[in-house]
Amino acid sequence: MKILVSRLAVAAALSLCISASPALAEAAPAPAAAPTAAQADAFIAAAEKESYDYVTEASRIQWVNNTFITEDTDALAAQSGAKGTEMAVRFALEAAKYKDVPGLSFDTKRKLDMLRNGIVLPAPTKPGAATELNEIATRLQSSYGKGKGTLDGKVLNGSDIEAEMGELTHTPAEYQEMWTSWHDNVGKPMKADYVRLAEIANAGARELGFADTGAMWRSGYDMAPDDFAKLTETLWQQVKPLYDSLHCYVRGKLNEKYGDAVQAKTGPIRADLLGNMWAQEWGNIYPLVAPKGAGDLGYDVGDLLKAQGFVSTSPSEMDPAKRGFWEKKMFKYGEGFFSSIGFAPLPDTFWTRTQFIAPRDREVICHASAWDVDQKDDLRIKMCTKVNSDDFTTIHHELGHNYYQRAYNKLSPLYLNGANDGFHEAIGDSIALSITPQYLVDIKLLDPAKVPSADKDIGLLLRQAMDKVAFLPFGLLIDRWRWGVFDGSIKPADYNKAWTDMRLKYQGIVPPVARPDDAFDPGAKFHIPGNTPYTRYFLARILQFQFYEAACKIAGWKGPLHRCSYYGNKAVGEKLNAMLAMGASKPWPDALQVYTGSREISGKAMLTYFAPLKKWLDQQNKGKSCGW
Ligand code: ASP
Ligand code: SER
Ligand code: ZN
């Protein structure tokens, strides 16, 4: 994820930053009658100034809270968040007064819309509401950060347990213990807070003229909110057959590995057997599903790093020079890719201010995020990196945010954002798609003799599909659940049941054990207590293939799409930068067109990429009864 100040754990979250000193905002009050376009311009200028100043200050506070969770930093973060919420709501109400003024410029109109729509968690203007909302939001996020689970009775923090879920060395009983302890310890205590948070945010959304908070979230895509919901459904239907084929194949392999008692041949898959705490990406269990012989890949990026001596910092390592040494080197590979296509190196401060690994002696939010604290060039990442393949990809993901942030840093404050939030999430991922065997040779991680030959293409594609295709229904359902919570169709008493039902409906997975009535499993996934809208990741999963396909075309690549790496290609970098530098200044189809030539988001590039695999999976699945 990326952290935009306001939407940082902060309830305030404008879709961008927002700030303005109250005095300045009041300098341009909307007149009681017939406001003019010039007054609207003055209001925007004041709001941008106030929001910009607020965001830099709030980012610093959030950074300290995220990297040093205590009662005091929680209190400071909640206070700052409340200030941001109140400011954002004030701007939204003010912006509404100007929306129909004749003669508004394109930019003023666009910025007024942003101010009206862009609050992740709005609060009503009632005194105390913003404070209560931000106290809850901070408490939820910090509880997640401090969350623990167990393995063989030993207590593990979030990043450690996530890494263990990705190891193939455990028994089903151990996966079950990790899954259950994490969901019980982290999720369950959050329920009452989440109920209250939804109530307050909904009251805030209604005051701003939206039906509920979910409707507000759907309004940030340069189209009618209902059309956006329809678009996500159309995209899902386009890619769903690919997911269904993968699900069927993987279920069969898990049955072969574990036997009927653990994983039946039919029905849903047990959620804890897929190599990931949330069953959202399955790449870690690739060795269990790898095609025998011809398609087997023969390498794993994490193992390649380990073979070069990379090793995760031991929690007990005391020498500051050694702590994070290898993890930092992993980031150098990411920077190297961006440099090779023409982006300037990261600022020196990136290397001194980034949190590369979990600190030894304090609680932090380990979930990875990218920041631009001064909204200019104070780029940083906060991660609890491990030497493994997941984190190698996540590094590229996070760096994508940082390079995007820098590319648009000259724009006016309200445009300091992605074309939409899905774009922001897709940039780094589209770079990571270029981590091909040949690229690994180029950066000297893979022995040229070990490059998988063309007959291993199915293995390469399957490895990617385990992460990319497996994610699609997960990326969709998180917000379908929240949309339901916010619009009232999912009642507090049914929060967990609705969650489990949706996990079954979309992903075809079930918890390893029946869930207790008071469970709150959604809380065990960062973005729920962190209040980060999630449809962005669904969009990004699709967009990244469009970006990648476009880049490969610019690079003149002729072979199979998944073998293309545009490492070193300056023409790609130039075109990519042209899109990134637009920030949020134009509707997203304009940005998409600049890089890809198309104005439509579509699953076609993803389907093209995986076409040979789809055919192969369907052959493997012949005679099986697929579905659940
Ligand atoms: N950036 C990822 C996400 O957006 C972080 C991760 O993969 O852990 O939340
Ligand atoms: N980074 C997002 C997550 O961790 C999407 O992959 O959920
Ligand atoms: Zn991200």
Automatic annotation (TrEMBL):
GO MF terms held by the record: metallopeptidase activity; peptidyl-dipeptidase activity
Domain of life the protein comes from: Bacteria
InterPro entries (alphabetical): Peptidase_M2 (IPR001548)
Gene3D superfamilies: 1.10.1370.30
Catalytic residue list: E398 (proton acceptor 1), E398 (proton acceptor 2), H527 (proton donor 1), H527 (proton donor 2)
List of residues binding Zn(2+) 2: H397, H401, E425
GO cellular component, one term: membrane
Keywords noted in UniProt: Disulfide bond, Glycoprotein, Metal-binding, Signal, Zinc
PROSITE patterns referenced in this protein's UniProt entry, alphabetically: PEPTIDASE_M2
UniProt-annotated binding residues for chloride: Y221, R536
GO BP annotations, alphabetical order: proteolysis
Residues annotated to bind Zn(2+) 1: H397, H401, E425
Cysteine pairings via disulfide bonds: C366-C384, C552-C564
Residues annotated as signal peptide: 1-25
The protein's name in its UniProt record: M2 family metallopeptidase
Organism this protein belongs to: Sphingobium nicotianae
